[in-house]
Amino acid sequence: MLMQDRIRLPFRFEPRLLQKDLSTLEKSSSEWIDHFVKQNYEGSWSIIPLRGPKGAEHPILMAYSDPTCKDFADTPFVAKCPYFQEVINTFKCKVESVRLMKLSAGSEIKEHTDYDLSFEDGTVRIHVPIVTHDKVAFYLNQQRVIMQAGECWYLKLSDPHRVINNGPDRVHMVLDMKVNDWLKGIFEGATTQV
After folding, report:
1. Which domain holds residue 102?
2. Rg (CA), the chain
3. In the chain, how many domains are there?
4. Is residue 15 part of a domain?
C-alpha cells in the first residue's frame, strides 16, 4: 500500500486534558531538554521524553530516537500524566519513542528529512498537537499542513519538512510506532489531507 505524505487519522483527543497533563509536567519542574540535532533548527526546540530506550536513565538518553533500539519503556515523566498514557494506549501497535516537542516562539526547524520514518519503511511518526495556533507554519514537501490541537496526524517525515513558529510556543506529542495490521486498517479508513 502506498501512502500519501499526510493523513489525518480518525482519532480526536481532548485538548483541555492534553494541556492539563502538559501543565502538570511543567509545574513538577520537569525541564525541557534542548533537541540534540542543533544544525536542524534556529531558536529553541526542546523535548520531554515520555517513552524511550529501555534502561535509559538520563533524560537526554531517554529522548534519543535510536533507530537500532528494539526495547522501549515509559519514562518516569509519563507516570504523572494519565491522559498522555490514555493517548499512547490508543495505538494497538508497538509504540517506540514518545516525546513532547516544543518549538518556542520565534523559532524555526530547518528543512530536513528523518530517515526511515514512513509507512512504507514500517515505522511511522504520528503528531498530536497539544498547544498550537495559526502562526505555526508546518511544511511537508513544500505544502503547508494545518493541524489543530487534539487532532492526530501521520506525516511522511522521510520527505523534506520544516516548521516556522511566528507566534507563542507550540507543543506536539510525537509518537514513533511500528506498522502492523491494526495500524494498516486505521490508515486505510483515514482521510488524506491536502
Report:
1. 6-192
2. 15
3. 1
4. yes
pLDDT per position in the chain (194 positions), as tens?
557 899 999 999 999 999 999 999 988 766 888 776 666 777 788 999 999 877 656 566 556 566 666 788 898 899 999 999 999 999 999 999 999 999 999 999 899 998 878 898 899 999 999 999 999 999 999 999 999 999 999 999 999 999 999 999 999 999 999 999 999 999 988 865 54
Q: How far is CA 135 from CA 97, 101, 148, 163, 166, in A?
A: 27, 17, 12, 10, 5
**Dihedral, CA atoms, 55, 58, 62, 68, nearest 10 degrees?**
-60
**Which candidate, 163, 153, 159, places its Cα nearest to that of 129?**
153
Question: Could you tell me if residue 45 is inside a domain?
Answer: yes
Q: Mapping DSSP to helix (H, G, I), strand (E, B) and coil, where does residue 181 land?
A: helix
The pTM of the whole model exceeds 0.85:
yes
Any domain includes 1: no
